[in-house]
Amino acid sequence: MSLAKLWQPQGKRQDAYDLLALVYNWFTEGFDTTDLQDAKALLDKLRAEMRASVVK
Predict the structure, then answer these.
(1) Structural domain boundaries of the chain?
(2) DSSP line for 1-56
(3) Residue 4 burial by CB count (10 A; 0-12/13-18/19+): exposed, middle or buried?
(4) Rounded CA gap, 27 and 47, in Å?
(5) Sign of CA dihedral 15, 20, 21, 23
(6) pTM for this one?
(7) How far apart are CA 11 and CA 32, in angstroms?
(8) How many whole angstroms separate alpha carbon 55 and alpha carbon 32?
(9) What pLDDT, in 10s, does the model give residues 1-56?
(10) E strand or H helix at 11
């Protein structure tokens, strides 16, 4: 998640999303943990930012 956070302000949102989504999707349980909730929130934020940049 740290690498995705690093890439986000560098404009590498798609790379950040792809990497984090790959790891997040490995999990089949534990979605109530803080780490996975934070990862999901970052994925949602990255997705929204990518959509917003397409609309501009």
Answers:
(1) 2-55
(2) -HHHHHHGGGT-HHHHHHHHHHHHTT-SS-TTSHHHHHHHHHHHHHHHHHHHHHH-
(3) buried
(4) 19
(5) positive
(6) 0.90
(7) 29
(8) 33
(9) 999 999 999 999 999 999 999 999 999 999 999 999 999 999 999 999 999 988 76
(10) none
